[in-house]
Amino acid sequence: MNGGFIIDHTEPKPLQHQGNSGDVDETSVLGKLAEGNIIPKKTFESLAGKLLLLLVVLLMCIGVLVVYSSGAGWGAKKFHNEEYFLWRQLLFVVLGLGVIFIVGAIDYKLFKKFSKAILVVSAALLAMLLAMKAVGAIEGAARWIGYGRFKFQASDLAKYALIMHLATMITEKKSHIKDLYRAYYPMITVVFGIAGLVALEPNFSTAAVIVSICFIVLFLGGVDLKHLALTALAFVPVAAAFAIAAPYRVARLLTFVGEGSDKASYQIEQALIGLGNGGVFGLGPGASKQRELFLPASYNDFIFAVLGEEYGFIGATLIILLFVGILICGVLIARNAMDDYGKYLAYGVTVAIGVYAFVNAAVACHLVPTTGLPMPFVSYGGSAALFNAFGVGLLISISREKKRQEKKKATSAEMNVEDSESKSSMKQATDS
Amino acid sequence: MQEFREHKKQEAQEARKREETIRFGVVLGCLLLFAVAIIGKLVMVQIVEAHEYQKRAKRQYEYQVPLKAMRGQILDRNGRQLATSLSVRSFAADPKVVANADTVAQTFSMLFDKPKSYYLAKLKEKSRFVWLERHVPASIAKQISEKHFAGVIEMKEVSRRYENLAEQVIGFIDSDNRGISGLEKQFDSLLAGKDGYMMMQRTATGYAFPAIGAKQEEAINGASVELTIDTDVQAIVEDELSKGLENVGASAGIAIVMDVQTGEILAMANAPEFDANKKSTYTLEAARNHAVTDVFEPGSTFKLVMATASLDLGIIKPDDKVDGTLAGKWKIKDRTITDHEALGKTTFRNAIAHSSNIVAAKVGLEIGKEKFYDYAKAFGFGEKTGVGLIGEVSGLLKPTSQWSSISLPWMAHGYEVLVTPIQMICAYAALANNGMRMKPFVVQRIVSANGEVLYYNKAEAVKRVMKKETAEIAREIFKAVVDSGTGMTARIEGISVAGKTGTAQLLTNGNYRSGNYVSSFVGFYPAQKPVIATLVMMINPTKGYYGSMTAAPVFAKINSKILSVLEPEMRDEILQFAAHKESAVKNFLDTTKTVAVPNVCGLSVEEAKEILRVHQLDFKKENDARGVVVAQGIAPESRVNVWTKVPLTIAEESKVPSLVGLRADRAIHVAEQLGLNVQVQGNGSKVLAQSLKAGSEVKQDAPFILTMSN
Looking at the predicted structure, is the pLDDT value of residue A166 above 80? Predict the structure, then answer.
């Protein structure tokens, strides 16, 4: 209903944070605008979206390159095709770009209406996986949904469903966001409900990261700090119990604190050797030596190590900076969003991408314990690529909202003038 | 109020906005901090500690592959190979890289007929290098390398190939290329050379390629050892010694041929022989070079000391009368010395010619023990000759202080003294060389791989044993031994030979076991101006035991044959004294030179060609195929004129050859080269039958049964 309010707003204000209540002091807002904005918001705002797209495309290109390099050996070994990963990753990039443009063109507010439904569906899918696992239809980790070639990670869907719905909830509960019963409990229940299902797959690290992302979004959404802190505190023993329940998690943690056995630390050690051997300038494109046998899953969870090995400190830092760029573009889009839903959705997507990227890089250079998270846009994998593309599409869509509204307004104005022209105009608006 | 409410609302609004901005700042700050932390860690790993990681990376990508130095050759005096190195294939594995240990073990188990668990155990070892199979036949090696197993390393190794001549002198090596006997052991460090290494880079999938720009060290091939031994002479000596051994039923035989003027050993043979290419065929006894390692009581050959000393001291002259007693027996200090034939009163020359023990004892007593000891010592008895072969012993010449009252007469006819065959021939060579004893030697030169002479021997006079005149007179006496005495069986047509037979009871564990004898003949020729000395010794002959019956005939056979192969200068020197009636022989010897045919079966055509060329032989192909040589038209070790064409039958690569009559190891080698699954029946050394018909198509891995002689 808040979003609707903004659309109804007749004033073409470039910056509109407080869309929740009608009684906004418009003069103060305007005053602020007059003070702080030398660069016209109009230009900058759309620039953020374009820049974001540029950075994402850049990362995708790097991703294709590094996936090809690190996956060639594995491809040759597993599929008798050196280019197996190259073509597949290229396909994902093309599909991903398609998704970005399609989602970018869709009004993101549409997802607000369906966010609950999407969340229920993803929760149902997660539950179904667990049920299938319980009856023995799935052996090992129940993570993938779909059939044959068309499979995706249920947790990828769940992550975005959760982000979308959380944005909806925060927007809806904005007025009483600090209320424990009316705002906090419902939201935290949804978060832990979904994260719990993911954790049971089992995919503990993804669940943990999802919870972290949600906490950040809740924090940004204005939830009472006390509630968050207490939850986090209560969550510690639960997390500890969960971690200890599986030996490999303990081993990973022990490795991180330097107590682990050689076997557990093997991946990390090899990742570090790769990075260190890359040095400042790297070994050169395609020259990674770690990728094939020494570094398992080099095209996926440890792609950052291969990247650092081939392109050195310069390349690795560039990747981090690209993600910092995406982060900044994302938060700019969020800060400039036309409504609260857009804002929190943009925050959520941006934080998700940033956290995934940084955690992945941090794992590879042994800054945090091993988690099996892919690096967005860079790591091999169709499911993650498409869902991240969806996220970027959302950000683009949010960044375009103002333009969309202006177009709408212009259209309605033109409609008043000349009826015949309006149709083509409208068409243009949806096209762009 | 309204305004106040408005104001409050506005304030709350502002506070919320502020809070939101702060929270946004905190989140962005934390995320940026995270990014900074990552970059900081990257600085540590990729810049500060990069060196450490690079070292570790290098350790894991690069490894050293030894570049095997080619073991040096052992060559005869004419540069013919007695021991050479061939490269063969071996397989090892890096257990850490082997991806599919099960398949690898399965494959090896099938090919080498060992349990799979044997290989699996090896593949589970912690080491990064384990041998799987060494010295693998080419056909099997191909089957393995075709599979491209990750982590399985194929290596070229060097295997030693011997001509099987003078094998006890040359010795052999173990599977690690270390010499374990003979010259191979003695000069191991020089022959072995220095292994180099090459840095190999390992890709993560286990394939290896030479590291570009990495340090590597070329292998320095071993030095070659050039011997004084003449392959042709050696072959003849071995052949005749073996035949002689069989004729007299002896348990062992020793023969040495020496250039009396220089001390060069032209041949040194021990029978029975063993196959140095087949480690399983040798026994420690057969591998020993008895010529330098064993001592014997020499018997009559030792009368050399008594005869030359008495002549040199002027105690006696060849034509002086001596009393050999009519009974052939002479009692001294309760012990009786017996002669084989009673000579009565006769000349000193005749007494020596007929090997009178009694005369020897009597003359010995006249010389006196101090003088006798001095002469024996001067001949080199009781001390090592310095021939330069490992295991040489000094024998035993007791100092006079330890002599009993009968020591002198007994020593005079060859007892109470222990002598090595090399000492004995050196002593006779001293007589032959006008009384000057030369130091014997077998190794002429050692030449490093780049041509530098590391070691050389040249003729070296050790000691004058007697006056030149005495030597000339003494040679007359020893010539009489062959002309009319006990050594008549040592005669060589047309050439005057001097020498001495010897028969002594074999001292076994301090006892003279009756019936065990050591029979020997040691002589030289031409008597006028000797060139060659030869010793033949038969140990424990069972068909007759006198030196004249056992050793002397072998001496004659050896020397009449080696005349044709000796170097022209040597031959000329010998033949200048040849009797006129033998000019026909002389002419024949002048115009022909013969060589021993080497065994080239089992070698590739190229290898066979090369070896034949070195032996001054030509070849002709009997058929047009490109496989290995399966038969040669002239039997190995037979003698033919130089540059004779040796017909070679070459196996069609896809046709089963006829291997009947071939030496066991060669036959197996040939069959394996063709990829047949060889099974051997019997443990003899020659192939009697083969299960697949010659000329039939080779089916890979078809069972092929070779029946060996027994």
Answer: yes
**Both structure tokens of A324:** 């910092």
Q: A365–B50: do the CB atoms touch at under 8 Å?
A: no
Of the candidates A276, A291, A293, the beta carbon closest to that of B53 is on A276
Interchain contact A355–B (C-beta under 8 A)? yes
User: How much is the pLDDT for B311?
Assistant: 93
Q: Is position A67 within any domain?
A: yes
> In Å, how far are A69, A310, A311, B199 from A288, measured between CA atoms?
8, 5, 9, 19
* Segment A277-288, tens digit of pLDDT: 888 888 877 777
Mutate to test the interface with B, among A270, A273, A324 (most CBs of B within 10 A): A273
Cβ atoms of B24 and A344 closer than 8 Å: no
Whether B489 contacts B281, CB under 8 Å: no
Closest of A359, A351, A355 to residue A334, by C-alpha: A351
How many A×B Cβ pairs under 8 Å?
124
> Chain B within 8 Å of A365 (Cβ-Cβ)?
yes
What single-letter amino acid sits at A355? Answer: V
Q: What is the mean pLDDT of residues B375-388?
A: 92
Residue A13 lies in a domain: no
The pLDDT tens digits of the residues spanning B666-685 come to: 677 777 767 777 777 766 66
CA distances from A323 to A56, A316, B132, B332, B633 (A): 9, 11, 51, 117, 82
Residues 6 or more apart whose CB falls under 8 angstroms from that of A112 comprise: A3, A164, A167, A168, A171, A341, A345
Which of A290, A293, A324 has its CB closest to that of B35?
A324
Residue B6: its chain A contacts at CB < 8 A? 25
ipTM, interface predicted TM-score of the complex: 0.82
Q: Quick one: CATH architecture of B63-162+188-222?
A: Alpha-Beta Complex (3.90)
Total domains, chain A: 1
Residues of chain A numbered 154-183 and touching chain B (CB < 8 Å): none
Domain housing A322: 42-400
Residues of B in contact with A293 (CB under 8 A): 97, 203-206
Residues B100-113: pLDDT tens digits? Answer: 888 888 888 888 88
In a domain, residue A428? The reply is no
Does CATH place domain B597-708 in 3.30.10.20? Answer: yes
Please state, rounded to an integer, the average pLDDT across all residues of chain A: 78
Is the CB of residue A330 less than 8 Å away from at least one CB of chain B? no
Give A 46-85 residues with CB within 8 A of chain B. 73, 77
Determine, for residues B13 and A18 on separate chains, whether the beta-carbon distance falls below 8 Å: yes
Per-residue pLDDT band at A24 (split at 50, 70, 90): very low
Nearest to B45 among A351, A355, A365 (CB): A365
Spell out the CATH class of B231-591: alpha beta
Of B49, B54, B204, the CB nearest to A73: B204
Q: Which residues of B touch A312 (CB under 8 A)?
A: 46
What is residue B522's three-state secondary structure?
A: strand
What is the token pair recorded at A294?
A: 């020494």
A61, part of any domain: yes
How much is the mean pLDDT over chain B? 83
Confidence check: pLDDT of A87 > 70: yes
Domain residues of chain B, as ranges? 2-48, 63-162+188-222, 231-591, 597-708
Tell me which chain A residues have a C-beta less than 8 angstroms from the C-beta of B42. Answer: 275, 308, 313, 316-317, 320, 365
The rounded distance, in Å, linking the Cα atoms of B623 and B630 is 11
User: According to the per-residue pLDDT averaged within each range, which of B197-206, B320-329, B691-700 is highest?
Assistant: B320-329
Give the range among A396-410, B71-85, B653-667 with minimum mean pLDDT: B653-667
- B336 backbone φψ class: left, alpha, beta (φ>0; ψ -120 to 50): beta
Nearest residue of B to residue A308 by CA position?
B46
Span between the terminal Cα atoms of chain A, in Å: 26
